[in-house]
Amino acid sequence: MAHFGADVLKIESRMSPDVVRILGSAWLKDREDLAPISSDTSPYVSEMNASKRSIGLELKTKEGKAAALQLLAECDVFLANFGARALTELGLDYDSVAAVNPDIVYVQLPGFGSDETMPYYPFVAWGPNQAPLVGMDDFTGHADDPPAGIATIAPPDYMSALHAAIATITGLEQRDITGEGVHIDISQFETTLALLGPFVMDYDLTGTVYSRIGNRSMWGAPQGVYPCAGNERWIAISATEAEDWTALRTLLGSAIDLDFDNPSTRLTDQDRLDEQIAAWTSSFEVEDLAYRLQSAGIAAHVVSTNEDLLHDTHVTSRNWYQVAASSRLGRDVFSGCAVKLSATPGRWTAAGPSMGEHTREVLSDVVGLSEEEINNLISAGGAFEQLEPDMVATRPWNDWIHLLVPGTEDARDL
Amino acid sequence: MVGPYNGLRIVDTTGLAGAYATRLFAGLGAEVIRLEPPDGSPLRRLGPFAHNVEPPENSLWWSYLAMGTRSVVIDPEDTNSLMQILAEADVVFEDQLPEKSLVPQDEISPTTIRTKILPFGLAGPKRNWSSSNLVAWAASGILYTTGFTNRPPVAPAAPMQLAYHASAASALVGTLLALRSRRITGVAQDVEISMQEVALSIAPETGVPMFMDDRVHRERSGNRRDLGRPFGLYPCKDGFVSIIVLMPRHWVAMAQWVSETTGNESITEEVFVDNAVRVEAKDLIDDWVEELTTQGTRLELFEEGQRRGIPITPVNTIDALVDNPHLEAADFWTTTQLQDATEVTIPGAPFRSSSPWWSMAPAPRLGEHTHIYLN
After folding, report:
1. pTM of the predicted structure, to 2 decimals
2. From the CA of A157, how many Å to the nearest CA of chain B?
3. Rounded Cα–Cα distance for residues B69 and B83 (Å)
4. Is B104 on the interface with A (CB under 8 A)?
């Protein structure tokens, strides 16, 4: 939303900071002198919050909460992912906010919904605990192994966020047409389950409990991740349709048994099929094989490492990584937006904000407080400003940003 | 249809790539026309299938993802009929490059939004490359970091086809923004989605900006991670539970629980409150925690652990989800009707709104609505 022009105000707290503010940056560990700005240095700050403004409000204080309600009276949308109980305890539940702004589009993403009569209402689940809850971990791994888990990423967070964006825009649309606000409750437990439809139906009809099948396809063979020359070099290949097989077969030559021309043999004897393909792929350099397969029309890709992605000219030629000014770091690099619009392409006004960087300007411009009122709010502990506004640090890899963002060899390009 | 997008006409020419987007559109009130070739959408060939229903109406993927849509069959050669359908479309969803699309790019109305979901986008050295759910994860860096060390890396939740659904949801976000823009300017535009970029945007935890920062080569680490202890999946009576303990107060509650249940007196010693110490002694901690987890079921451990304020969840399987007491109480599951009139359980609306937004008719029969749109 921020990329496409909305004025997104991120409410931040020092009493209970956002996790991206706690993480800091790896190179900062030995820099005691930069400790006061650690909260602005995690790469997540720009990854998650580029083009947003940061306002420091302590919602647990009487003054901070009052300022938040004054702010919400001026906003079109309120988006919150506090636990449902925490939001009610803060006095920022839908009824309280609608009392000051009846037209607001109020979107909340509690783990288990905001109905306090429901069994899991007080429960919490976030990050790595969410994927197992919604069935993703059970679906991850090879068939004979224990679930491999999705240890390193949290797809449910992103699916919930996409649903929240859809709900928010829909809420704005409805408000524009009817003049009425709306309360949208996104239970993170429920929203990801919407992706399980066919498996739920099959269980209901036949009792089949579908589970993990490694990298194989439910719909054809071969599909898998196969070894290539070198240490830990892998290629992903999907050749599940009849024409894929014809093309793959030409490349495989005598490396494959003739009976695999029968599609049902490919499905029923996948172990032997995969073994023969793996024996064939293991003599190739992975990049070379990916190009050979794609040239023959077969879906394939290097199983990319970060080192590969750094040098992925397709990704960089599409300007996937972006660079923008940062008040704390001079400039910072972050991932772009996967939604590309041709006529209204959006823009990045800034990298991620410093914590509390915009407190004063938001309270003044949006809420309309006087300088004295803002000073009083800050001294009462209801709001806070950026620490050490003049302290600036440059990332050690600042000089290498041109690897990700072509044309930025010279910092003055900004 | 009373949903907020009542009055919009959407034409979907995609297979799996756009299906989740147009399903949501239909649920929110839009009139969604699925253009099918005479032998049916490729979605209709995706199993599992309903055994008592004849093809091409038996695919459960079709029966779920095509809900609320209308089926219009058009011969690929019949450009007149195609143009007739497209003439009044507010949005067209495509999953082919312009030169391969059946939609004539130059003849489409300037007020029609063109949403294109493509493997690697419209431009760039790999624009002509093919993809799949697996290939999209391979190209994102995520596949490489998922799985056990001694086994080939694996895609996250592969059967769910997450890369397609996340691409579809992203496409819907872009389409809704384009519709708002059109309402103001009167002009439509292209919405472009690269499946690779969608997968990359789910990967900041493992992604390149993080890697630039710490310069640590990511390797897969199985279902536990050394960020903390306990951290990851632990076996129990009927499967696994997931426990993520980082914060001191979570550990104190965890140690207390293990101690009360297994009689372990060492685990509550002060020294283990330090996460770094626990990671150092991870095998010991894991053994102690497993002595607790192997005594209970997923649901017992989840409910008791949560009651104690510990971040624990069950590793749910499909049967456990369908029978879950919270989802039952919340009335989440609903039903749809197959072509033989069988009622079958499906997930309910993905979010709840104070306005009555969501409604879904069963998926259409092949060509069920052709006569309405082409006469």
Report:
1. 0.97
2. 9
3. 19
4. no
